[in-house]
Design brief:
The protein has a 7-stranded mixed β-sheet with strand order 6-5-4-1-2-3-7. 31% of the residues are buried. By secondary structure, it is an alpha/beta fold. 56% of the residues lie in helices and 12% in strands. A hairpin with a 2-residue loop joins strand 4 and strand 5. It is globular and about 60 Å long. It is built from 13 helices and 7 strands. The chain has 2 domains: 90 residues, 434 Repressor (Amino-terminal Domain), CATH 1.10.260; 181 residues, Endonuclease, Chain A (2-Layer Sandwich). Helix 7 runs parallel beside helix 9. InterPro entries: Cro/C1-type_HTH, DUF5753, Lambda_DNA-bd_dom_sf. This is Scr1 family TA system antitoxin-like transcriptional regulator. It holds the Pfam family HTH_31.
């Protein structure tokens, strides 16, 4: 079985390699896409790991970049590994969700700084039991899982939350405002969850903010992501994508830009209070 550490080393390397090859041609992403007859967004998605290229995509990319035989073999190997990682994630999910949560517990334990930007769910580190249970039940239905270990997964996720009280660690949670509004769970579950979020605002090692809907923002929130020291994780419907090095630096810069437009402190408390009141 591929370990979490191995996936961290491997995932993201393909996207970084393809971006470097495109830059070597001197073409912008837009011009490169035009040469291939693609939409520019397709090149961007591949270079940032949001889309896994097909074998034919890789062949076209390599031909335009005039890669050597050895480079072509390396790229093909990277693609096989990325595809294997996604298959491994699906296999792990079929075996239950608790082991996946245990992997994330280890990742948090090894990290000094944990940063979240979420556009759909409250981060797992600060979820209540009822909210987490709703999330895991949704995954069972979505992925047609046969193993029902939701209760074990809830307890493992709650154990991760105890790391919030470790003064040696630093946490950042930035949520897009829809996270507070979308009814992805019963009203009483969401009310309890929002109330719990208010309680972590005073923790000295936690930075908490909300990206508001009712004012201009400089950076479009394209997807949620998590940063564990030098490792970035992007979760999609089909699996987890891990990045490191240059890609993590890009996500860190993006998160800093998002924070510049975020509500914090008393403004966040007021927004949480208003969201809770709307559920009464």
């Amino acid at each position: 079985m591929t370990t979490l550490t191995e996936r961290q080393r491997e995932t993201g390397m393909l996207a970084e390699a393809l971006r470097a090859l495109r830059q070597r041609t001197g073409l912008s992403g837009k011009d490169f896409a035009a040469q291939l007859g693609w939409h520019a967004s397709r090149v961007s998605r591949i270079e940032h790991g949001r889309q896994i290229p097909t074998a034919s995509d890789l062949h076209a990319w390599s031909a335009l970049c005039q890669v050597s035989r050895s480079e072509s073999a390396e790229l093909a190997g990277l693609l096989r590994r990325v595809e294997a990682e996604h298959r491994d994630w699906r296999r792990r999910m079929r075996q239950g969700q608790n082991s996946v949560q245990a992997d994330y517990n280890q990742l948090v334990e090894r990290s000094a700084t944990v940063r979240h930007f979420e556009i759909a769910w409250v981060p797992g580190l600060v979820q209540t039991a009822a909210y987490a249970r709703q999330v895991f039940r949704e995954q069972v239905e979505l992925h047609r899982l046969e193993v029902h270990d939701e209760e074990a997964a809830v307890q493992t996720r709650l154990a991760r939350g105890r790391q919030l009280y470790n003064p040696a660690k630093r946490f950042e949670f930035l949520l897009a405002e829809p996270v507070l509004r979308w009814r992805t769970c019963p009203q009483d579950v969401l009310r309890e969850q929002l109330t719990a979020l208010r309680q972590i605002l005073a923790l000295p090692n936690v930075r908490f903010g909300v990206l508001p809907l009712d004012r201009p923002i400089a950076t479009t929130p394209q997807n949620g992501f998590q940063i564990y020291d030098a490792v970035t994780v992007v979760e999609t419907f089909s699996g987890e994508i891990f990045f490191s090095n240059g890609a993590t630096a890009l996500y860190a810069r993006t998160l800093d830009r998002l924070w510049a437009d975020a509500l914090t402190g008393a403004d966040v408390d007021a927004l949480l209070t208003a969201s809770i009141t709307s559920l009464e």
